Amino acid sequence: MNMPYLANRRSYDDAAELMALFGDNAGYEAAARADRSRDVGNHIRFCHWRQIERLIVLLTHEGPLGTIH
């Protein structure tokens, strides 16, 4: 899995908020928000919510990911 790009603190805050509100379904909510943004032609918000979806997967993973030093 590629590590998601975080442009700013808002990305983490959005992911944490969705996880608090939707629990295990937070990734699905982020995907739905991305789809709605795409449908109205907002490519910036589409990309934002796709990255949030990837971040949620990363945050819910139990074990370490990537290189361990």
Provide the structure class. Answer: mainly alpha
State the shape.
Answer: globular
* Main beta sheet strand tally, sense and closure: none
Mean pLDDT score: 90
Outline the structure in words.
By secondary structure, the chain is mainly alpha-helical. The chain contains three helices and no strands. The chain has one domain (7-58). Helix 1 (9-22) packs across helix 2 (26-39) and helix 1 (9-22) crosses helix 3.
Helices and strands, with pairings:
Elements (H helix, E strand, L loop, with lengths): L8 H14 L3 H14 L3 H18 L9
Helix pairs in contact: 1-2, 1-3, 2-3
In a few lines, what is going on in this structure?
67% of the residues lie in helices and 0% in strands. The chain is mainly alpha-helical and 69 residues long. It has one domain.
